[in-house]
Amino acid sequence: MADADKMNFAETFKNQTKKFVVDHIKFYRTLPKTEEAKIIGRQLLHSSSSVGANYRAACRASSQAEFHSKLSTLVEEADGSMLWMEVLIEADS
Q: Quick one: how many helices (H) and strands (E) in the chain?
């Protein structure tokens, strides 16, 4: 992949991870005002915002090892976000 393509991918993914966070904030605002929804919703906000933050941190990594570490954390937080979304959906069923 050429350097220009890498930069374009990095910028596109940075925008997508920011949108991921913003979409989850908007979703959180639609949740019922129950204590359970607030608690799980906050967990969702925490994990989804960590996705965006860790991608940006990966872009600033000073080594390949640091880059991979940040991406690994990003994947864990994305998986956590999926868990909290699934819990919210199943709890509403």
A: 3, 0
Q: How far apart are CA 57 and CA 64, in angstroms?
A: 12
**Among 59, 57, 26, 60, which residue's Cα sits nearest to residue 44?**
26
Mean pLDDT by 10 residues, the chain (93 residues): 82 96 97 94 97 96 96 97 95 75
Q: Does domain 3-92 have CATH number 1.20.1440.60?
A: yes
Please name the amino acid found at residue 92.
D
Closest CA to 31 of 19, 17, 44, 13: 44
45: burial class by Cβ within 10 Å (0-12, 13-18, 19+)? middle
